[in-house]
Structure formats: structure tokens, C-alpha cells
Design a protein that fits this description.
mainly alpha
């Protein structure tokens, strides 16, 4: 039910009372049966409007209580509106945080990958240097073995195959 202020109710009651008196006078002045039925129906509708506009004696709502109810309703609506805005901002902040964390994890993964590649290259450096020395022409006797058939063998470290490290999967961040 919508509550109106006292001045509005008073003016509406005056209009309804004037309309009801006019209908009663029209009913008394007319002798036609169908017209009286129509007027009586309109009077009943005006009486129902009176009940709606004018509070009953059992309706103990004072102006202060009505204002308090309206204020409470307004605060509830405002609270719901603020809650929706907060949830939207919170979701946006979560999304931004996820994106920044993913970017940071990707940078860290790339750094680790680069360090592993550099370390693998540093580990392979002595082997490459030995291979370069043996293929340069001057063969050192303590680095190679000679067998009975005159073949020169190296230490067996010809393995310079380097495989790229697999990229770890980023799990969903919650």
C-alpha cells in the first residue's frame, strides 16, 4: 500500500465527498430506475475509495511511522543498490588481479626457462671446447685412446643435443 501525506489525503477526501453528494442529489432527482442503479454503483465505488484514502481507526500508523516505513524501504533499496555496485567492483578487481598474477607467473616462468637454458649452455661449454680442440688438428695423447687398429677415439662426449624445457601449465587462479 502506498502512503500519501496528510495534505494530499485531505484534498482527495474533499473531492470524493463532493462527488458523492452530487451522485446522491442526482439519485433523488431522478425517477428512472436504470439511472438510479448506475448512480448507486458509482456511490459504492466512491465509498470504497473513501476507505482506501482515509485510514481506519484500526490503522494505527501515524505520520512518523509512515515516514519511518518509507525511510526503511528507501534504505533497503539503497543497500541493495550499493551491494550490487560493490559486487561488480569486487569482480572487476578479482579479474584484474588474476590477469596480473598470470602475467607475473609467465614472466617468472620465462626467467626460469632462460636461466635453465643458460645453465645447460654453460654445462655444455666444456664438452664443446673439448670437441673443438680434438677437431682442430692437434690431438693430445691424454685426451684420446689409441687402439690396436690405429683408430683415435674421443671421450665419448659427442652428445650436444639440447632439448627445450617444456612450458608448465598455469592452473586456474581462484
Amino acid at each position: 500500500m502506498t502512503y500519501y501525506d496528510k495534505a494530499f489525503r485531505k484534498s482527495l477526501l474533499e473531492l470524493l465527498a463532493g462527488y458523492r453528494k452530487m451522485l446522491e442529489q442526482a439519485s433523488v432527482a431522478s425517477s428512472e430506475q436504470n439511472y438510479n442503479i448506475l448512480v448507486n454503483e458509482k456511490i459504492k465505488k466512491v465509498d470504497e475509495a473513501f476507505k482506501i484514502v482515509k485510514p481506519s481507526t484500526f490503522d494505527f500508523l501515524t505520520e512518523r511511522k509512515i515516514e519511518k516505513l518509507q525511510a526503511d524501504e528507501y534504505l533497503k533499496e539503497k543497500e541493495a543498490e550499493i551491494k550490487k555496485k560493490y559486487e561488480a567492483k569486487l569482480e572487476l578487481a578479482k579479474q584484474e588481479l588474476r590477469e596480473s598474477i598470470k602475467a607475473e607467473l609467465k614472466r617468472e616462468r620465462e626467467k626460469k626457462k632462460k636461466r635453465k637454458r643458460e645453465q645447460a649452455a654453460m654445462d655444455m661449454l666444456p664438452v664443446l671446447l673439448k670437441n673443438m680442440q680434438t677437431s682442430g688438428g692437434d690431438i693430445q695423447p691424454d685426451e684420446t685412446d689409441s687402439s690396436n687398429d690405429g683408430e683415435i677415439k674421443s671421450d665419448g662426449q659427442d652428445n650436444d643435443d639440447f632439448t627445450d624445457f617444456p612450458e608448465p601449465e598455469i592452473e586456474s587462479i581462484e
